[in-house]
Design goal:
The complex is a heterodimer. By secondary structure, chain A is mostly helical. Chain A has 5 helices and no strands. In chain A, helix 1 runs antiparallel to helix 5, helix 2 packs across helix 5 and helix 3 runs parallel beside helix 5. The longest helix of chain A is centred in the first third of the chain and has 31 residues. The relative contact order of chain B is 0.16. In chain B, helix 1 packs antiparallel against helix 5. By secondary structure, chain B is mostly helical. The longest helix of chain B is centred in the middle third of the chain and has 29 residues. In chain B, 72% of the residues lie in helices and 0% in strands. At the A-B interface, helix 1, helix 3 and helix 4 of A face helix 1, helix 3 and helix 6 of B.
């Protein structure tokens, strides 16, 4: 990380190729995640409701163990993506406001997306299912926007603006 | 803390928060699936006729083991790197704690498979390794908190060159490297 995010013009320029490759893979990962959620019905309130609550009758929903497993895996994924993209944003030539919006927007959306399955399960309402769809799309959107902005700007025009 | 690390402070604290979520969920999953007694850990791996559960297959164990062999060492590696970078521990202490943590990861992963296929009594080792790893990772998170918490005063950069780099980076005009 020291090499990749060293705030000198030359170091940033040298780290641009591997960083761009990583960012490309990050975008592919996010696309795959969106596809995975879409296939599991995660992008429609009805699909989310059915996935977490089944028919709505007791015993037909997702077990608590599966919910915790989902949170466990997602916390790893989001934690690493936020650390990597956030660290690159710190030394990118993007404006301070853009960096703050991308970093904190992604952080809040990811935190909300981690909590959303529990909210859906506990509230058990279609409105809660809509929250999960919104949190998924917002989290992926912010992360993808950060990766895309870095893909275009990282290592160009020196370091942090 | 070196001045140029300050920009990474909120990110590292957010990362620590997400790792904490992983630690808590890992503990919950362990308690729910393996239980907190030696007998329940052994029954999880070797099956329990009374509870109508079957022994774990190697394929089933590897399904959990393989992603954890990447995720846990990677998480430990990044945390060790960040704590080392911030300089809150002396090198011998950092190395000792890192070695203990990596050893606990390895013992934890290996003991599960060994309970199933070699020696059921190793369930005690599995339980101890899991608890040890959780406590060690909590200690690492405390160190991250100490290193990156906003109330910690920023120290002067260690060399004139570093001072120049930090100032130039803050002003948006990074210095060229030598």
């Amino acid at each position: 990380m020291k090499f990749l995010v060293s705030p000198t013009r030359d170091a940033l320029s040298r780290s641009r190729p591997p960083v761009r490759l990583f960012l490309g893979f990050a975008l592919v990962l996010l696309a795959a995640l969106v596809a995975q959620r879409a296939l599991a019905g995660g992008l429609t309130p009805a699909g989310v409701f059915e996935y977490y609550l089944g028919t709505g009758e007791p015993g037909t929903g997702l077990p608590l163990t599966a919910l915790v497993e989902e949170l466990h895996g997602a916390a790893f994924l989001y934690g690493f993506l936020l650390l990597m993209l956030g660290s690159l944003l710190v030394v990118s030539p993007l404006g301070a406001r853009s960096r703050a919006v991308l970093t904190w927007g992604a952080t809040l959306a990811c935190a909300l997306d981690l909590a959303a399955p529990f909210v859906v399960t506990w509230l058990g309402t279609p409105a809660a299912a809509t929250l999960r769809v919104a949190s998924s799309l917002t989290a992926m959107g912010f992360l993808a926007a950060g990766a895309a902005a870095l893909l275009l700007r990282f290592g160009r025009d020196g370091g942090a603006a | 803390m070196k001045a140029r690390l300050a920009a990474f402070r909120p990110l590292v604290l957010v990362f620590a928060g997400f790792v904490l979520v992983q630690l808590v969920t890992a503990a919950v999953l362990f308690a729910m699936k393996l239980g907190c007694s030696l007998a329940s850990v052994e029954a999880f791996y070797r099956g329990a006729p009374d509870a109508m559960t079957r022994p774990r297959s190697l394929a089933g164990l590897l399904e959990t083991t393989v992603p954890h062999l990447l995720a846990v060492p990677l998480t430990v590696f990044v945390i060790v790197h960040l704590v080392g970078w911030a300089g809150v521990l002396r090198r011998p202490a950092l190395q000792l704690l890192a070695r203990v943590t990596f050893a606990l990861v390895l013992v934890g992963v290996a003991s599960g498979i060994l309970v199933r296929f070699a020696w059921p009594a190793l369930s005690a080792v599995k339980l101890a390794a899991f608890l040890g790893l959780e406590l060690t990772l909590v200690l690492w998170l405390v160190l991250l908190g100490i290193a990156f918490w906003p109330s910690r005063p920023l120290l002067e950069p260690e060399t004139p060159r570093a001072a120049g780099e930090a100032a130039a980076a803050e002003a948006g005009h990074p210095l060229p490297t030598r």
